[in-house]
């Protein structure tokens, strides 16, 4: 990606992030609403400086097919609430035991473990509340997205299934198949769904939905590999979280298994393949293609 | 309630529980499905001997209005998955720190805190998955129940809001208004929704839905008072959990605030009022009325 294109996509993403943040603020209970501790905890973690990758994917795929902007924003926020719930629980002492997330103290460090557990729980419920709210799209689409979301975050090749497989991998046994399962489930399924949800909300034709699904799968894996590379190569300061922690915890990572160079090449290939799948849309899909490149930018 | 009526309702409830348990078994991933630890943990807690109050309420109100049995059973199971998720998280060391639940070791005691946290998370998602599954009732009803459920378990006068208010109450400040909020939110909202969901699934008329809502609110509070009384008066053996723990933890309970006798009278009054609200249905509502009496039976 050229320096000019990189700068343009960064500016665009900043604008979209501001839209998402405004919508998240509208949908979250205020900090002064009773009981205040839980609402403060939810807001602390939602506004801790996330990249908003999942909401942006939903919005941009929805825009490609001229979806209704207001309802796309709601779906986008629901995805971010789910993502934030998973981070809060993942950071707990019983799981990854992280003190820092995006350079800020994690939820349980500020509000205690009890409130952090409940804040994660409440963000999951809030996501489904937002998706089941009145307004467009048609009911059948809302139910399909809700159903697909529950699969993407569930125990059968969904987010929680991937987390459990990852926990078990720390105990030793890991092969290429297991590593693929962990990546596809733990982060891949929700990123894939983020891309699909925008297309579903915009009533994209089945053929288009297929292309978007391929795009979502490719960048989901590319993003995970890039994230593993950053953990392997980055400094704690750059990451905003403790660097090298994956390796230290014997986490199943792509570079640990295939080496740094092979991982970099794999991530680049996946991004190229993701962009190829959108070729039928020509210049209209430029944003989604730039977004794919942007995701792995810091690691190549 | 006469001895004969009490025995008849008990037999009936045993039959309904068996139906519910069979449906729960069908909807849960098997113990051998990868990753096995999470599925074992979910099943451990779902099949730990629960009373199935919420599923039974949903089924019985649905049956009063001739709802479709198969879809009522699904909604009933979703309510039990939500209830079980809340118990697993409530028992965690960071919250109530309970080793026993219904006489069995709690989820985190058997599977570890990490798996227990994720099992609760997964049960919440599974509940919404079941509610968003294909089949009757019509989409608009499914979405209404999903939306109402997210409110019943959320932070604004829902289950998590009540839990947080309860946690804060342990630190001292508690008045009658706060106690009412805790009861209505922590357990009342989900029991009310359990009663409503059956009527909604059966497309009950608005007037009927109003009566069922009143019934659900009254028995929700009666049940919570009865539960508080059991904790105050029962032995650990009878309860299957550590007796007197509420008092020890300075929990906000009805008997602690109003005394045992006033609490007993209040619970009885609520059950009478619940039954009165169903008088228009005559003998057809007998089961629901008997169920209301049964709920407070062990404490009067």
In short:
Chain A is an all-alpha fold and 300 residues long.
Explain what you see:
Two copies of one chain form a homodimer. Chain A is mainly α and 300 residues long. Chain A has one domain: Farnesyl Diphosphate Synthase, CATH 1.10.600.10. The first copy, chain A, has helices spanning 3-27, 36-46, 53-64, 69-90, 107-111, 113-131, 139-152, 159-169, 176-201, 206-233, 236-239, 245-248, 254-258, 260-277, 286-296, and strands at residues 100-101, 104-105. Chain A has a two-stranded antiparallel ribbon with strand order 1-2. In chain A, helix 4 runs antiparallel to helix 9. The model of chain A has no long low-confidence stretch (mean pLDDT 92). At the A-B interface, helix 2, helix 6, helix 7 and helix 8 of A face helix 2, helix 6, helix 7 and helix 8 of B.
Largest beta-sheet characterization of chain A:
2 strands, antiparallel
Shape of chain A: globular
Most extensive interface? A-B, 49 and 49 residues
Q: Tell me the CATH superfamily of chain A.
A: Farnesyl Diphosphate Synthase
Beta strands of chain A, count: 2
Radius of gyration of chain A: 18 Å
* Name of the CATH class of chain A: Mainly Alpha
What's the CATH topology label of chain A? Farnesyl Diphosphate Synthase
SS content category of chain A: mainly alpha
Q: What's the mean pLDDT score of chain A?
A: 92
Provide the low-confidence segments of chain A as ranges.
none
Question: What is the architecture of chain A at the second tier of CATH?
Answer: Orthogonal Bundle
Q: List the secondary-structure elements of chain A in sequence, H or E.
A: HHHHEEHHHHHHHHHHH
Please count the helical segments of chain A. 15
Q: DSSP strand (E) fraction of chain A?
A: under 5%
Q: Describe the oligomeric state of these chains in a short phrase.
A: homodimer
- Counting structural domains of chain A, the number is 1
End-to-end C-alpha gap of chain A: 11 Å
Biggest β-sheet: strands ordered side by side in the sheet of chain A: 1-2
């Amino acid at each position: 990606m050229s320096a000019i294109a990189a700068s343009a996509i960064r500016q665009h993403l900043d604008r979209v992030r501001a839209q998402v943040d405004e919508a998240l603020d509208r949908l979250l209970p205020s900090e002064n609403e009773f009981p205040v501790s839980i609402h403060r905890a939810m807001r602390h973690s939602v506004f801790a400086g996330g990249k908003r990758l999942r909401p942006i994917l939903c919005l941009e795929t929805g825009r490609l097919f001229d979806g209704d902007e207001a309802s796309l924003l709601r779906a986008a926020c629901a995805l971010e609430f789910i993502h934030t719930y998973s981070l809060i629980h993942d950071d707990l002492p019983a799981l990854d035991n992280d003190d820092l997330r995006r350079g800020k103290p994690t939820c349980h460090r500020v509000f205690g473990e009890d409130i952090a557990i409940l804040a994660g729980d409440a963000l999951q419920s809030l996501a489904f509340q937002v998706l089941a709210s009145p307004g467009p799209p048609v009911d059948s689409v809302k139910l399909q997205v809700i159903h697909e979301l529950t699969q993407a975050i569930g125990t059968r090749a969904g987010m929680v299934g991937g987390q459990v497989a990852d926990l078990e991998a720390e105990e030793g046994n890991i092969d290429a198949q297991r590593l693929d399962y962990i990546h596809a489930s733990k982060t891949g399924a929700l990123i894939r769904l983020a891309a699909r949800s925008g297309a579903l909300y915009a009533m994209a034709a089945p053929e288009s939905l297929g292309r978007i699904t391929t795009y979502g799968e490719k960048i989901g894996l590319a993003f995970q590999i890039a994230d593993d590379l950053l953990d392997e190569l980055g400094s704690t300061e750059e990451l905003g979280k403790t660097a090298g922690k994956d390796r230290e915890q014997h986490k199943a990572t792509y570079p640990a298994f295939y080496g740094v160079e092979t991982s970099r090449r794999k991530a680049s290939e996946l991004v190229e393949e993701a962009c190829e799948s959108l070729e039928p849309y020509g210049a209209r899909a430029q944003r989604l293609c730039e977004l794919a490149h942007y995701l792995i930018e810091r690691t190549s």
